[in-house]
Design a protein that fits this description.
Elements lengths: L5 E7 L2 E9 L40 E6 L2 E5 L1 H7 L6 E8 L9 E9 L2 H17 L2 E8 L2 E10 L2 E7 L16
Parallel strand pairs: 1-5
Antiparallel strand pairs: 1-2, 2-6, 3-4, 5-7, 6-9, 7-8, 8-9
């Protein structure tokens, strides 16, 4: 069996059970190309170039900054980024249940298979999954993955669940901007 991408707990009120998430999609079979020098056939590598001096910057000199105004940056140190990083509790907290039809397809992002983490939690997992199936509901929950909080929709799928991360409102463009001449 593949390795779990994320391990933690599913919590609904006072019920908690161990779970594992596995990516339900893959890019592994996708064809990838490299950039090459047409004359020599050698692979090309990109360099970080200082915008003003035009000189290459070594990786140990590379940092991050936030643009305050055009061309004006405040330097952000790695320890400052770590201080504001969201810490994962490794718990998916179910907040509410909604009919599947209430989730706009444009918000669907990445799918994950969710399985019980061990035999001791399998019964609690099955109770939550079967209740959603019986009521024809999808659970909306919060999860922290890769230091970012996501909203995830959980729905029954066979003997497990399908968890699909959802995009936030600011990530989805309004259709009226594109269909005004239609």
């Amino acid at each position: 069996m593949p390795r779990a991408y994320w391990k933690g707990y599913l919590r609904l009120s006072l019920v908690t059970c161990p779970i594992e998430l596995f990516p339900a999609s893959s890019q592994a079979e996708k064809m990838h190309f490299h950039q090459i020098n047409k004359k020599t056939g050698n692979r090309l590598r990109q360099q970080m170039i200082d915008e003003d001096t035009g000189k290459a910057v070594d990786s140990d000199e590379k940092g991050r900054g936030y643009e305050l105004s055009k061309g004006k940056y405040v330097k952000i140190e790695e320890d400052e980024l770590k201080a504001v990083e969201i810490e994962s509790t490794h718990t998916i907290d179910i907040d509410s249940f909604v009919p599947r039809s209430e989730i706009d397809k444009r918000y669907l992002d990445k799918p994950y298979y969710i399985t019980p983490g061990d035999k001791s939690g399998a019964e609690a997992f099955a109770v939550i999954r079967d209740a959603m199936k019986d009521e024809e509901r999808v659970a909306l929950a919060r999860i922290v993955m890769a230091h970012r909080e996501h909203i995830i929709a959980l729905e029954p799928l066979g003997k497990g669940m399908l968890g699909t991360t959802l995009r936030y409102n600011y990530e989805v463009r309004e259709e009226k901007d594109y269909f005004k001449n239609a």
